[in-house]
Amino acid sequence: FRIKKKSNCPLTTVRDTLQTSFSVLDEDLAKSAMPDQNGLVCRMSVNAAVSGSCALVSHIRKNNLHVASCGDSAAVLGVHLANDVIARQLTRPHTVENLDEIARIRSAHPPSENRTILKANRLLGELYPLRAFGDVRFKWPKELQKVVLDPLGMPAPQHLLTPPYLTCLPEVFYHQLTSNDRFLVLATDGLWEFLDSDAVVRLVEDHMTGHSTLNVFRPEHKQPLGDILNNLEKRQSADNKKPLDENCATHLIRNALGGVSGDVELQYARLEEMLMLPPGMARHYRDDMTVKKIFFENFQKKFFFL
């Protein structure tokens, strides 16, 4: 990447750097699957190139937040507003739900392909995210696929006429952090299939409020009695929100799979049922879940990652 950056692609902004990083990584994945000088291919490298992956990256420098999104993961900001915390969506999904994505893909191919390029709300009738790393079956021409993929039993998608249909180029979103921004949640689509952004922000805020009760209360030195009483009253009200999970990301995943309604016993029964599904069947009920949460505590000085 350093060589490419230095020789071919001068990078002047965070946006340029993020987009170039994504593109170079995707090129490396594809190149690793190419035949060597003897016409041999590495099956492991081919499997990696044929597999697909979405990506979501945040870059924070002082009060500048950039989020690069490729696929259907999402970033949500928890913002303090009028004694409440609201959700602010920072990214857009690269799926058929995004009309701009549909227009982008159709404009890159002949009008004669309008009926085949998106079928059953999927790219060429197969792929749900419209941007992704890998998935070279949607990027390589048929001639190359016949040489590399066909012998391995990996046929090209139907209606593959004018590839590439898929890109890993991310959309990069910018936000200037303020003292009202409390936290950022980055999560794959598996979480958002069960919880919307408002529910996620509410769960995180409740976890942060209740988490304070897990620590021993220690008044500040020479703190007025009135302030101590006020803090104790807040702590007592927060006791009702005492979390079952020490880790906030775990808290979100447990509530996604176990549900937010019913008592704890019922929630754990649902959670156990979801986690006990066999691998082949689980895909029909839940997608992979990865959650990262960033706390902004005095955002100009420090961050906490969970």
How would you characterize this protein structure?
With 306 residues, this protein is an alpha+beta fold. It contains 12 helices and 12 strands. The protein has helices spanning 2-7, 14-32, 43-50, 99-107, 114-117, 142-148, 189-192, 197-211, 225-238, 248-258, 264-275, 279-282, and strands at 52-53, 55-61, 64-70, 74-81, 84-89, 118-119, 122-123, 133-134, 171-176, 181-187, 291-297, 302-305. The strands form 4 sheets. The protein has a 5-stranded antiparallel beta sheet. Strands 2-3-9 form a 3-stranded antiparallel beta sheet, covered by helices on one side. A hairpin with a 2-residue loop joins strand 2 (55-61) and strand 3 (64-70). Helix 8 crosses helix 10 and helix 10 packs across helix 11. It is elongated, with a radius of gyration of 23 Å. The two termini are 29 Å apart. The mean pLDDT is 87.
